[in-house]
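> forwarded from #structure-qc
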């Protein structure tokens, strides 16, 4: 989905896609299936042919999961830092819809990054771009109100409402579904109070 994950436009998509299609295994996932759970080592990355996945983490005090991101068809799937360093993930990766995903071993990716300066450059750029996107989102929680974040999301990615359930968007914005409903109602009728 164009616009939701802006880092995609700044990395060598063909490099990662070719790896997944050539060396990956096509897997089929059902709706709401976990691909990765918090605490597991993420030993893979993937390329999504069809479907939508969400990334979430658990607030232990509230005993509640919050969505921190989404990946869409023709995008990548990974807990990128942990898949490169064999660390336990702090994320859940779960399907929102049924999905077809090429899954590739992160060991293969690690080895490939070590084979040339060019591949190391590709790895560095990917990590930097994901960091910049995450950092910008972090700052947005302080710079903008929930309403402003919602409007920015719609401007950046107007079709997100057709692909992601409202409760998942509310969680991503760190607001309740009721608050999101009020914001949507206000803007659907042009009430700019």
């Amino acid at each position: 989905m164009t616009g939701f994950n802006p880092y995609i436009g700044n990395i060598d998509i063909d490099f990662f896609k070719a790896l997944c299609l050539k060396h990956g295994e096509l897997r089929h996932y059902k709706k709401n299936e976990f691909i990765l759970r918090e605490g597991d080592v993420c030993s893979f990355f993937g390329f999504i042919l069809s479907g939508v996945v969400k990334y979430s983490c658990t607030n232990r005090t509230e005993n509640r999961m919050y969505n921190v991101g989404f990946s869409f068809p023709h995008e990548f799937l990974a807990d990128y830092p942990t898949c490169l360093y064999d660390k336990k993930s702090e994320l859940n990766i779960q399907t929102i819809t049924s999905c077809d995903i090429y899954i590739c071993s992160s060991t293969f990716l690690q080895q490939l990054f070590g084979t040339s300066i060019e591949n190391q450059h590709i790895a560095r750029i990917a990590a930097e771009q994901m960091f910049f996107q995450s950092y910008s989102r972090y700052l947005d929680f302080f710079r903008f109100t929930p309403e402003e974040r919602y409007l920015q999301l719609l401007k950046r990615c107007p079709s997100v409402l057709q692909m992601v359930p409202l409760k998942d968007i509310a969680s991503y914005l760190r607001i309740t579904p009721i608050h999101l409903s009020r914001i949507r109602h206000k803007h659907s009728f042009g009430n700019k109070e």
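QC bot note: The mean pLDDT is 89. The radius of gyration is 17 Å.
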